[in-house]
Each structure stands twice: as C-alpha cells, then as structure tokens.
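seq:
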Amino acid sequence: MLERIGNCRIVEEVASGGMAVVYRAIQDPLGRTVAIKALKTSVATEESIATRFEREARSLAALQHENIIHVYDFHQERGALFIVMEFVQGTDLYDLLDRCGRLPYDVAAIAAMQVARALDYVHYRGIVHRDIKPANIMVSRSGGVKVMDFGIARDKNFEDLTEAGTGIGTPAYMSPEQVLGDKLDSRSDIFSLGVVLYQMLTGKKPFVEDEQKSAMHKIRLEKHTPVRKLNPEIPRELERIVDKCLEKRPADRWRSAQHMVIALERFLAKHVEMNHHARMVMFLRAQNVITELEAEEYLNPQVLSHGAATLLQTNMAARQTERNGVLAHGIMFGVVALMLGLIHVAPLGATPETQTVIKQQGRGFVRVSAYPWATVSVDGEVRATTPRATPLEVTEGNHIVRFAHPWYQPVERTLVMTPSELEAAQTLTVDFEQEGKLLPGARVPAAPVKPVPVEPADDDGDGSAAGGGK
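struct:
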C-alpha cells in the first residue's frame, strides 16, 4: 500500500472496485481526514478511462453542494492518478439496504429528497450523472446524504466520450432511453432515482432479471409492480411519486429534479415533524449503524432520552391520528348511508332483523410497555418508543416485536394476531432488569423508579377503536 500521496499520509484502504481504490488519509498541513480515490494502474494506461477520471475531478471541483462529495485536489504521480476528496463518516446506501432490507418510508423519502436536491444542482449546470444507484449514495453519521462517483457523468463543458448508440451505466438502474443508447437528459437521472427510492421502500428492485427476460428488457417494456402491493404501509402519495419517476417516456416523468424535490417536501411536511437529519440519525442509531455516543454528537441528548420519546416517532403518531380520523369519518358516513338506505328500501312497518357492525378487517392493536423504556420495532420497522399510551396497529398474522434499550441486550417477543385476537388489544411488556442482560460499559442510573401503569382514557382517540376491535 502507498504511504503518501502529495501532502497526504495514507492511513488505510477503505474500498476497492474494478477501476479504483479508495484510501483514508490525513492531509498533514490541515490535519483533516480525506478520502483519496486512486485509479488502478491496470486500467490507467487506457486513455479513455484516464480521461474520464480526470474529468470527474474537474467536474466535482466546480460543484459546491451539501449533498455532493467535495473534491479538494488532483494528483498525477509516478504515472498514477489520484483524486483527493471529502471523507464521509458513514455508510453507503448499498450497505445500509443490505443490513436493513428496506427503510421506513419517511427515512426513504428523506434520503431521496436529498439526492434529488443534488441532481437539481448538477442538472442546472449541464451535468447528467448517469449512474445513480445505492453504491453511489453515502449516508453520513450526521444524517446527511451525499451523491458521489461522477466517473461516467456527462458534462456539457467536455466532449462526450460515449459513442452514439452505446448504453452506459448500471443495468438495473438504467432508464429506458439509457438502455437504448439514446441521448440522455436530466430525466434519465430521475428514472434512476425512482429505482433507488423503490428499492428503499420495498427492499427489492423494480426490474430484476429472470430466466426469460433481462432487467433491461423489463425496463424498456414492462410495468413495475406497485410499491403498495409489496408494502401496504407506504402512503399512496409516496407511491404516486415513485410511479411518476418510473414512467417509460421521459415526457411523463417529473419535469425536473426540482419538481420531485417539491413533491417530496410536501409529503414529508405531513409525515415528519422533526429535523430531517435528526430523523436519519435516530434511524441509524436504531439499526446499530452508529452508537448512542455517536448519535449524541449530532443530537441534543434529550432527543435520545426517556423524556423526549414522542419525538422519536412523530411521523408514526401523525399517521396513526390521520388513520383514526379517516376511519372514524368512514364509519360515520357508512352508518348514515346505511340508515338512509333502510329508510328508503324497507317496507312500511318492517323492522330490521339484523344489526350491521362495521369494522376494519384484518387489523388489530397491541399495547407495548417496557421498563425503564425501549424503542419498539415490529418486523424490523421502528414503530414506537415507550412510554406510549396509544396502542400500535398491526395486521393479522405473526409478527416479531423487538424491544431495544442502549443499556441492555434487545428482547424479542412473538406476536400472533389471529382473527379471534383482533377483537381486543393485546399487551406486551418487558422488564429489562429481569429479562435483559446489561451491556458492557452501560451507564445505568442509580435506584430507578418503576412507573405505575396508567390505563389510557376512553377519549384519547384510540380507546374506542381498540376496545371495539399506525
């Protein structure tokens, strides 16, 4: 391994790909940590690859945006090429999806919005990225999202090195026009971002190769499976945003990345009532991507404490309230319509023989509590932080409910919701002192006082639904 590049001292190799290696280094004069992308000697002799590498450095050096990796310097030493750039502490989206499967819909929307902002910035400057995919999107520990790897980007300031009729990019994330080798504009990147957003929401790519058809064939000719069919918890508004990204004809997609940003901002305003970076940091903490101490570097400690539990899931609470309101209005409307129908169609003097009961099929509720407190996940999705008065809505079937606390080993419960058990809310309780094992170095306060269970009032907005039984 190299020891120095210019004024940078190499610390370690952090990643390696087909054409380049990335090192973590210290820039001695400033003492700051940087990343150095080195073109491999095996491909550096190819003129087109070396030219692309140098153009990437020049294009990025002219870009200054919070959602784009910054370039500091470019070196050519001993026949090798190096780009000195910003070092982002965090993980790329590819590894995050590999770890989590899929992301909560609000976290996915936050990530997509930040990428769309970066694309809007570069598109305005005549650059088309042409390789938007999870591996080229970094999620920092501070909750920021950054686009990187402009190696095959098309910049209006340089001659395009791609021959006409040649498709370039990563097959599963290509736009239909990219597959055909047509001339691309900014709407091609919007399609690719739609593929990434789809994968964040469902854990699956919308166009996957099988024995009969390639992914590129499906991209050109086949309609994707709606995201709500794979994950019914996704709001319809977000599904429409994805669908508009994945239109086959560029003219049917979002006219620009800015229009997509506006749509995502409007959606997030209804579902996330906290700082977006803070929401991302708490998700990374819940997935153990970062530690509690690392999270506290970027958040007010009260956000992670017992007293601010409601902030940890404002989006879930908002959605629960919205659902309750819609359900209540729907029931009232149905009852009124039924009464009017009986008045108009029932014979005079007739008496209804049955009483109609309206209820939501296939869904029930579960109350959760934990001592001293816990972050509660259902099937891998963070749903609540205790103490919580209102129950969680769950679908019929088997679920894994996970109680996590930074001082103890997580505790899991299996929740079985059969049709007969949907009628009334179930209860799951965890006492970490008795069931969990204390983690090494945990800071447990002395003599904690166990809370006294309090039954929620009947008028809290959920009591009637739970008793009648997000």
